Protein backbone atom coordinates (compact mmCIF):
# COMPACT_ATOMS: atom_id res chain seq x y z
CA UNK A 1 0.00 0.00 0.00
CA UNK A 2 2.59 2.61 -0.97
CA UNK A 3 0.26 5.42 -2.04
CA UNK A 4 -3.18 6.41 -0.83
CA UNK A 5 -5.77 6.43 -3.57
CA UNK A 6 -8.36 9.18 -3.74
CA UNK A 7 -11.04 6.87 -2.34
CA UNK A 8 -9.00 6.25 0.81
CA UNK A 9 -8.59 9.91 1.68
CA UNK A 10 -11.12 10.95 4.34
CA UNK A 11 -13.44 13.41 2.57
CA UNK A 12 -12.33 14.90 -0.73
CA UNK A 13 -13.90 18.31 -0.06
CA UNK A 14 -13.50 21.42 -2.17
CA UNK A 15 -12.40 24.56 -0.29
CA UNK A 16 -15.97 25.89 -0.56
CA UNK A 17 -17.85 25.75 2.74
CA UNK A 18 -20.46 23.04 3.15
CA UNK A 19 -23.98 23.53 4.56
CA UNK A 20 -22.85 22.07 7.88
CA UNK A 21 -19.92 24.44 8.09
CA UNK A 22 -22.15 27.41 7.38
CA UNK A 23 -24.53 26.21 10.09
CA UNK A 24 -21.57 25.80 12.47
CA UNK A 25 -20.51 29.40 11.75
CA UNK A 26 -24.10 30.54 12.33
CA UNK A 27 -24.10 29.03 15.84
CA UNK A 28 -21.33 31.52 16.67
CA UNK A 29 -23.89 34.34 16.57
CA UNK A 30 -25.77 32.84 19.52
CA UNK A 31 -23.40 34.14 22.27
CA UNK A 32 -23.49 37.69 20.81
CA UNK A 33 -27.28 37.46 20.53
CA UNK A 34 -27.62 36.17 24.09
CA UNK A 35 -25.53 39.07 25.44
CA UNK A 36 -27.42 41.75 23.50
CA UNK A 37 -30.88 40.40 24.37
CA UNK A 38 -30.15 39.94 28.09
CA UNK A 39 -28.29 43.27 28.29
CA UNK A 40 -31.34 45.05 26.82
CA UNK A 41 -33.80 43.24 29.10
CA UNK A 42 -31.78 43.53 32.31
CA UNK A 43 -30.16 46.95 31.85
CA UNK A 44 -32.67 48.88 33.95
CA UNK A 45 -32.52 46.41 36.87
CA UNK A 46 -28.71 46.24 37.03
CA UNK A 47 -26.53 48.58 39.16
CA UNK A 48 -24.07 50.93 37.41
CA UNK A 49 -21.08 48.86 38.53
CA UNK A 50 -20.71 45.05 38.34
CA UNK A 51 -18.22 42.77 40.13
CA UNK A 52 -15.42 41.47 37.93
CA UNK A 53 -13.14 39.45 40.21
CA UNK A 54 -13.55 37.51 43.40
CA UNK A 55 -11.14 36.26 46.00
CA UNK A 56 -13.07 33.72 48.00
CA UNK A 57 -16.43 35.38 48.67
CA UNK A 58 -15.04 38.90 48.52
CA UNK A 59 -15.29 41.05 45.39
CA UNK A 60 -11.81 42.39 44.60
CA UNK A 61 -12.46 44.43 41.47
CA UNK A 62 -15.39 45.85 39.58
CA UNK A 63 -16.22 47.30 36.19
CA UNK A 64 -18.93 49.62 34.90
CA UNK A 65 -21.99 47.79 33.58
CA UNK A 66 -21.65 49.46 30.18
CA UNK A 67 -17.97 48.51 30.03
CA UNK A 68 -18.86 44.93 30.93
CA UNK A 69 -21.53 44.77 28.20
CA UNK A 70 -19.15 46.43 25.75
CA UNK A 71 -16.23 44.10 26.39
CA UNK A 72 -18.10 40.79 26.53
CA UNK A 73 -20.35 41.86 23.66
CA UNK A 74 -17.43 42.81 21.40
CA UNK A 75 -15.56 39.58 22.13
CA UNK A 76 -18.68 37.58 21.23
CA UNK A 77 -19.17 39.72 18.11
CA UNK A 78 -15.54 39.22 17.04
CA UNK A 79 -16.08 35.48 17.52
CA UNK A 80 -19.09 35.59 15.21
CA UNK A 81 -17.14 37.59 12.61
CA UNK A 82 -14.19 35.17 12.80
CA UNK A 83 -16.77 32.47 12.03
CA UNK A 84 -17.70 34.33 8.83
CA UNK A 85 -14.04 34.76 7.86
CA UNK A 86 -13.49 31.04 8.46
CA UNK A 87 -16.05 30.29 5.74
CA UNK A 88 -13.85 31.86 3.05
CA UNK A 89 -12.19 29.42 0.66
CA UNK A 90 -8.70 30.49 1.71
CA UNK A 91 -9.35 29.37 5.30
CA UNK A 92 -10.63 25.90 4.34
CA UNK A 93 -7.75 23.99 5.93
CA UNK A 94 -7.94 25.75 9.29
CA UNK A 95 -11.72 26.36 9.23
CA UNK A 96 -12.52 23.80 11.90
CA UNK A 97 -9.86 25.11 14.30
CA UNK A 98 -10.93 28.72 13.68
CA UNK A 99 -14.54 27.83 14.52
CA UNK A 100 -13.34 26.11 17.70
CA UNK A 101 -11.28 29.11 18.79
CA UNK A 102 -14.03 31.60 17.91
CA UNK A 103 -16.60 29.52 19.80
CA UNK A 104 -14.24 29.29 22.76
CA UNK A 105 -13.87 33.08 22.99
CA UNK A 106 -17.51 33.89 22.27
CA UNK A 107 -18.76 31.21 24.68
CA UNK A 108 -16.45 32.42 27.45
CA UNK A 109 -17.55 36.06 26.94
CA UNK A 110 -21.25 35.19 26.96
CA UNK A 111 -21.10 32.90 29.96
CA UNK A 112 -19.00 35.42 31.92
CA UNK A 113 -21.60 38.12 31.27
CA UNK A 114 -24.55 35.83 32.03
CA UNK A 115 -23.04 34.53 35.28
CA UNK A 116 -22.07 37.98 36.61
CA UNK A 117 -25.25 39.79 35.60
CA UNK A 118 -27.36 36.80 36.60
CA UNK A 119 -25.75 36.60 40.06
CA UNK A 120 -26.32 40.30 40.70
CA UNK A 121 -29.94 40.07 39.55
CA UNK A 122 -30.83 36.91 41.46
CA UNK A 123 -29.13 37.89 44.73
CA UNK A 124 -30.17 41.55 44.45
CA UNK A 125 -26.76 42.51 45.86
CA UNK A 126 -24.24 44.58 43.83
CA UNK A 127 -21.41 42.54 45.35
CA UNK A 128 -22.74 38.99 45.73
CA UNK A 129 -20.71 36.00 46.98
CA UNK A 130 -19.72 34.10 43.87
CA UNK A 131 -19.46 30.59 45.29
CA UNK A 132 -18.66 28.15 42.50
CA UNK A 133 -20.42 30.15 39.78
CA UNK A 134 -17.22 31.44 38.09
CA UNK A 135 -16.54 27.79 37.21
CA UNK A 136 -19.71 27.83 35.10
CA UNK A 137 -18.42 30.89 33.27
CA UNK A 138 -15.24 28.99 32.38
CA UNK A 139 -17.24 25.92 31.34
CA UNK A 140 -19.00 28.23 28.86
CA UNK A 141 -15.80 28.27 26.79
CA UNK A 142 -16.68 24.69 25.89
CA UNK A 143 -19.24 26.24 23.54
CA UNK A 144 -16.51 26.15 20.89
CA UNK A 145 -16.89 22.37 20.75
CA UNK A 146 -20.34 22.76 19.16
CA UNK A 147 -19.25 24.41 15.86
CA UNK A 148 -16.12 22.21 15.97
CA UNK A 149 -18.19 19.02 16.17
CA UNK A 150 -20.59 20.27 13.48
CA UNK A 151 -17.90 20.88 10.85
CA UNK A 152 -16.38 17.91 9.01
CA UNK A 153 -12.73 17.03 9.19
CA UNK A 154 -10.92 18.10 6.03
CA UNK A 155 -8.00 16.49 4.25
CA UNK A 156 -4.92 18.68 4.38
CA UNK A 157 -2.78 19.38 1.39
CA UNK A 158 0.53 17.73 2.24
CA UNK A 159 3.55 20.00 2.69
CA UNK A 160 5.86 17.06 2.17
CA UNK A 161 7.00 15.40 -1.01
CA UNK A 162 5.69 11.92 -0.21
CA UNK A 163 6.56 10.67 -3.68
CA UNK A 164 10.25 10.30 -2.79
CA UNK A 165 10.94 6.63 -2.04
CA UNK A 166 11.04 6.10 1.74
CA UNK A 167 13.92 4.17 3.32
CA UNK A 168 12.98 0.64 4.37
CA UNK A 169 14.37 -2.13 6.57
CA UNK A 170 14.81 -5.42 4.70
CA UNK A 171 12.61 -7.93 6.55
CA UNK A 172 12.13 -11.55 5.47
CA UNK A 173 8.63 -12.68 4.49
CA UNK A 174 8.11 -14.45 7.81
CA UNK A 175 10.14 -11.98 9.87
CA UNK A 176 8.68 -9.35 12.20
CA UNK A 177 10.43 -6.35 13.67
CA UNK A 178 9.85 -4.11 16.68
CA UNK A 179 11.77 -1.00 17.69
CA UNK A 180 11.79 0.69 21.10
CA UNK A 181 13.39 3.67 22.65
CA UNK A 182 13.02 5.61 25.87
CA UNK A 183 13.46 9.37 25.74
CA UNK A 184 14.15 11.13 29.04
CA UNK A 185 13.95 14.90 29.49
CA UNK A 186 15.73 15.85 32.75
CA UNK A 187 14.36 19.43 32.63
CA UNK A 188 10.80 18.14 32.98
CA UNK A 189 11.82 16.01 35.98
CA UNK A 190 13.21 19.12 37.67
CA UNK A 191 10.15 21.20 36.82
CA UNK A 192 7.88 18.44 38.16
CA UNK A 193 9.87 18.18 41.39
CA UNK A 194 9.87 21.95 42.00
CA UNK A 195 6.18 22.27 41.14
CA UNK A 196 5.30 19.36 43.44
CA UNK A 197 7.29 20.89 46.32
CA UNK A 198 5.61 24.24 45.65
CA UNK A 199 2.18 22.64 45.58
CA UNK A 200 2.75 20.89 48.92
CA UNK A 201 4.14 24.05 50.58
CA UNK A 202 1.33 26.24 49.24
CA UNK A 203 -1.20 23.53 50.09
CA UNK A 204 -0.17 23.58 53.75
CA UNK A 205 -0.28 27.39 53.71
CA UNK A 206 -3.71 27.27 52.06
CA UNK A 207 -5.13 24.94 54.72
CA UNK A 208 -3.73 27.11 57.51
CA UNK A 209 -5.02 30.31 55.94
CA UNK A 210 -8.46 28.85 55.22
CA UNK A 211 -8.44 28.36 51.48
CA UNK A 212 -6.31 31.25 50.28
CA UNK A 213 -4.22 30.38 47.20
CA UNK A 214 -6.11 27.18 46.51
CA UNK A 215 -6.15 27.90 42.77
CA UNK A 216 -2.35 28.25 42.74
CA UNK A 217 -2.08 24.83 44.40
CA UNK A 218 -4.25 23.33 41.67
CA UNK A 219 -2.18 25.05 38.98
CA UNK A 220 1.09 23.73 40.47
CA UNK A 221 -0.37 20.24 40.78
CA UNK A 222 -1.35 20.39 37.09
CA UNK A 223 2.15 21.54 36.14
CA UNK A 224 3.55 18.58 38.09
CA UNK A 225 1.34 16.06 36.29
CA UNK A 226 2.02 17.53 32.82
CA UNK A 227 5.80 17.66 33.41
CA UNK A 228 5.81 14.08 34.68
CA UNK A 229 3.83 12.98 31.62
CA UNK A 230 6.55 14.23 29.27
CA UNK A 231 9.57 13.54 31.53
CA UNK A 232 10.08 10.04 30.16
CA UNK A 233 8.45 8.72 27.01
CA UNK A 234 8.61 5.30 25.43
CA UNK A 235 8.33 5.38 21.66
CA UNK A 236 7.75 2.12 19.81
CA UNK A 237 7.29 0.96 16.23
CA UNK A 238 5.87 -2.51 15.62
CA UNK A 239 3.06 -4.45 13.93
CA UNK A 240 0.56 -2.23 15.77
CA UNK A 241 2.04 0.97 14.37
CA UNK A 242 3.67 3.96 16.04
CA UNK A 243 3.05 4.46 19.76
CA UNK A 244 4.14 7.10 22.24
CA UNK A 245 3.54 6.18 25.88
CA UNK A 246 4.24 8.22 28.99
CA UNK A 247 6.64 5.89 30.75
CA UNK A 248 6.19 7.32 34.26
CA UNK A 249 2.40 7.71 34.26
CA UNK A 250 1.85 4.67 32.01
CA UNK A 251 -0.68 6.12 29.66
CA UNK A 252 -0.59 6.38 25.86
CA UNK A 253 -0.11 9.85 24.38
CA UNK A 254 -0.34 8.86 20.74
CA UNK A 255 -1.09 5.75 18.75
CA UNK A 256 -1.18 5.51 14.96
CA UNK A 257 -2.10 2.07 13.58
CA UNK A 258 -0.21 0.83 10.51
CA UNK A 259 -3.27 0.95 8.26
CA UNK A 260 -3.57 4.72 8.79
CA UNK A 261 0.02 5.40 7.79
CA UNK A 262 0.63 6.59 4.23
CA UNK A 263 4.35 7.25 4.65
CA UNK A 264 7.05 7.71 7.29
CA UNK A 265 10.44 9.35 7.22
CA UNK A 266 13.15 10.78 9.46
CA UNK A 267 13.13 14.57 9.61
CA UNK A 268 15.03 17.34 11.32
CA UNK A 269 12.75 19.03 13.84
CA UNK A 270 13.15 22.63 14.93
CA UNK A 271 11.09 23.28 18.10
CA UNK A 272 10.49 26.89 16.98
CA UNK A 273 8.66 25.65 13.87
CA UNK A 274 6.18 24.07 16.25
CA UNK A 275 5.95 26.97 18.66
CA UNK A 276 7.95 25.30 21.40
CA UNK A 277 8.27 22.01 23.24
CA UNK A 278 5.66 19.50 24.43
CA UNK A 279 2.51 18.31 22.71
CA UNK A 280 1.98 20.72 19.79
CA UNK A 281 -1.19 20.88 17.74
CA UNK A 282 -1.45 22.91 14.54
CA UNK A 283 -4.10 22.61 11.84
CA UNK A 284 -3.55 19.30 10.07
CA UNK A 285 -0.43 18.37 11.98
CA UNK A 286 0.56 17.57 15.53
CA UNK A 287 3.83 16.78 17.23
CA UNK A 288 5.45 15.69 20.46
CA UNK A 289 8.57 17.85 20.57
CA UNK A 290 11.05 17.04 23.35
CA UNK A 291 14.26 18.25 21.77
CA UNK A 292 15.68 19.74 18.62
CA UNK A 293 17.13 17.32 16.09
CA UNK A 294 15.77 14.18 14.54
CA UNK A 295 12.24 12.90 14.65
CA UNK A 296 9.92 10.37 13.06
CA UNK A 297 7.47 12.13 10.72
CA UNK A 298 4.34 10.23 9.72
CA UNK A 299 1.82 11.23 7.06
CA UNK A 300 -1.56 9.63 7.63
CA UNK A 301 -3.85 8.46 4.84
CA UNK A 302 -6.17 11.39 5.57
CA UNK A 303 -3.28 13.76 4.85
CA UNK A 304 -2.62 14.85 8.45
CA UNK A 305 0.89 14.70 9.84
CA UNK A 306 2.37 13.61 13.16
CA UNK A 307 5.95 14.06 14.35
CA UNK A 308 7.75 12.78 17.45
CA UNK A 309 11.35 13.64 18.26
CA UNK A 310 13.65 10.66 18.90
CA UNK A 311 17.42 10.29 18.48
CA UNK A 312 18.57 8.35 15.36
CA UNK A 313 15.14 8.40 13.73
CA UNK A 314 16.19 6.78 10.40
CA UNK A 315 15.86 3.20 11.65
CA UNK A 316 12.37 3.48 13.24
CA UNK A 317 11.11 5.56 10.28
CA UNK A 318 12.39 2.93 7.85
CA UNK A 319 10.85 0.10 9.90
CA UNK A 320 7.54 1.96 9.99
CA UNK A 321 7.62 2.34 6.19
CA UNK A 322 8.39 -1.36 5.77
CA UNK A 323 5.62 -2.50 8.13
CA UNK A 324 3.05 -0.07 6.69
CA UNK A 325 3.79 -1.28 3.15
CA UNK A 326 3.07 -4.93 4.05
CA UNK B 1 16.80 -0.73 19.65
CA UNK B 2 15.44 -2.91 16.86
CA UNK B 3 14.34 -6.45 17.63
CA UNK B 4 13.52 -8.80 14.80
CA UNK B 5 12.36 -12.40 14.96
CA UNK B 6 11.66 -14.98 12.28
CA UNK B 7 9.36 -17.79 13.49
CA UNK B 8 10.33 -19.81 10.38
CA UNK B 9 14.00 -19.90 11.41
CA UNK B 10 15.59 -23.08 12.86
CA UNK B 11 17.04 -20.98 15.71
CA UNK B 12 14.64 -20.67 18.66
CA UNK B 13 12.95 -17.28 19.08
CA UNK B 14 14.42 -16.82 22.58
CA UNK B 15 17.90 -17.40 21.13
CA UNK B 16 17.22 -14.95 18.27
CA UNK B 17 16.37 -12.26 20.84
CA UNK B 18 19.39 -13.10 23.02
CA UNK B 19 21.75 -12.90 20.02
CA UNK B 20 20.49 -9.41 19.17
CA UNK B 21 20.89 -8.12 22.74
CA UNK B 22 24.41 -9.59 22.86
CA UNK B 23 25.27 -7.91 19.57
CA UNK B 24 23.82 -4.63 20.85
CA UNK B 25 25.91 -4.79 24.04
CA UNK B 26 29.03 -5.79 22.07
CA UNK B 27 28.77 -2.93 19.53
CA UNK B 28 27.81 -0.39 22.19
CA UNK B 29 24.34 0.45 20.83
CA UNK B 30 22.97 -0.95 24.12
CA UNK B 31 24.95 1.13 26.61
CA UNK B 32 25.21 0.07 30.28
CA UNK B 33 22.04 1.12 32.10
CA UNK B 34 19.82 1.00 28.98
CA UNK B 35 16.42 -0.39 29.85
CA UNK B 36 15.02 -3.15 27.71
CA UNK B 37 11.30 -3.06 26.94
CA UNK B 38 9.11 -4.91 29.48
CA UNK B 39 8.68 -8.58 28.50
CA UNK B 40 4.94 -8.20 28.06
CA UNK B 41 5.45 -5.19 25.78
CA UNK B 42 8.11 -6.84 23.60
CA UNK B 43 6.07 -10.04 23.36
CA UNK B 44 2.95 -8.31 22.11
CA UNK B 45 4.98 -6.09 19.75
CA UNK B 46 6.48 -9.16 18.08
CA UNK B 47 3.37 -11.32 18.49
CA UNK B 48 5.25 -13.98 20.48
CA UNK B 49 4.78 -15.60 23.90
CA UNK B 50 5.80 -13.52 26.93
CA UNK B 51 7.57 -16.55 28.45
CA UNK B 52 9.79 -16.74 25.36
CA UNK B 53 10.97 -13.19 26.06
CA UNK B 54 11.41 -13.96 29.76
CA UNK B 55 13.49 -17.03 28.83
CA UNK B 56 15.74 -14.87 26.65
CA UNK B 57 16.08 -12.23 29.41
CA UNK B 58 16.85 -14.94 32.03
CA UNK B 59 19.57 -16.38 29.80
CA UNK B 60 21.10 -12.91 29.35
CA UNK B 61 20.96 -12.32 33.09
CA UNK B 62 22.78 -15.63 33.72
CA UNK B 63 25.36 -14.52 31.14
CA UNK B 64 25.98 -11.41 33.24
CA UNK B 65 24.67 -8.98 30.61
CA UNK B 66 21.36 -7.95 32.17
CA UNK B 67 20.07 -7.23 35.61
CA UNK B 68 16.42 -7.74 36.44
CA UNK B 69 14.79 -5.77 39.22
CA UNK B 70 11.31 -6.17 40.58
CA UNK B 71 9.11 -3.48 39.07
CA UNK B 72 11.89 -1.91 37.01
CA UNK B 73 12.26 -4.56 34.36
CA UNK B 74 15.47 -5.58 32.63
CA UNK B 75 18.41 -3.27 32.00
CA UNK B 76 21.95 -3.66 30.73
CA UNK B 77 24.38 -4.21 33.61
CA UNK B 78 26.80 -1.40 34.38
CA UNK B 79 29.79 -3.74 33.89
CA UNK B 80 28.51 -5.33 30.68
CA UNK B 81 30.35 -4.53 27.49
CA UNK B 82 32.08 -6.01 24.48
CA UNK B 83 34.45 -7.92 26.82
CA UNK B 84 31.57 -9.70 28.60
CA UNK B 85 30.08 -10.74 25.30
CA UNK B 86 33.47 -11.99 24.05
CA UNK B 87 33.88 -14.10 27.21
CA UNK B 88 30.45 -15.68 26.69
CA UNK B 89 31.31 -16.49 23.10
CA UNK B 90 34.61 -18.10 24.18
CA UNK B 91 32.81 -20.19 26.83
CA UNK B 92 30.30 -21.33 24.20
CA UNK B 93 33.15 -22.26 21.84
CA UNK B 94 34.97 -24.15 24.62
CA UNK B 95 31.84 -26.16 25.47
CA UNK B 96 31.17 -26.94 21.81
CA UNK B 97 34.75 -28.19 21.37
CA UNK B 98 34.53 -30.30 24.57
CA UNK B 99 31.25 -31.86 23.37
CA UNK B 100 32.88 -32.71 20.04
CA UNK B 101 35.75 -34.47 21.88
CA UNK B 102 33.37 -36.27 24.26
CA UNK B 103 34.67 -34.39 27.33
CA UNK B 104 31.93 -33.88 29.98
CA UNK B 105 31.04 -30.47 31.42
CA UNK B 106 32.38 -31.30 34.97
CA UNK B 107 35.70 -32.28 33.37
CA UNK B 108 35.84 -28.95 31.55
CA UNK B 109 35.11 -27.15 34.84
CA UNK B 110 37.90 -29.12 36.54
CA UNK B 111 40.24 -28.22 33.70
CA UNK B 112 39.49 -24.54 34.20
CA UNK B 113 39.84 -24.81 38.00
CA UNK B 114 43.28 -26.41 37.82
CA UNK B 115 44.43 -23.46 35.77
CA UNK B 116 42.77 -20.75 37.86
How would you characterize this protein structure?
The complex is a heterodimer of chains A (326) and B (116). Chain A has 326 residues and is an alpha+beta fold. Among the domains of chain A are: 17-154; 235-324, Roll (PH-domain like), CATH 2.30.29. Helices cover 43% and strands 23% of the residues of chain A. In chain A, the strands form three sheets. In chain A, strands 7-10-11-9-8 form a five-stranded mixed β-sheet, covered by helices on one side. In chain A, a hairpin with a 2-residue loop joins strand 4 (232-238) and strand 5. In chain A, helix 2 (29-42) packs antiparallel against helix 3 (65-86), helix 2 runs parallel beside helix 4 and helix 4 (95-123) runs antiparallel to helix 5 (133-139). Residues 1-11 of chain A have low confidence and may be disordered. Chain B is mainly alpha-helical. Chain B has helices spanning 13-27, 39-46, 50-62, 82-101, 105-115, and strands spanning 2-5, 66-69, 73-76. Chain B has a two-stranded antiparallel ribbon. In chain B, strand 2 and strand 3 (73-76) form a beta hairpin. In chain B, helix 2 (39-46) crosses helix 3 (50-62). Chain B is globular, with a radius of gyration of 16 Å. The termini of chain B are far apart. The chains are: A alpha+beta (326), B mainly alpha (116). The interface between A and B is medium-sized, with 20 and 17 residues.
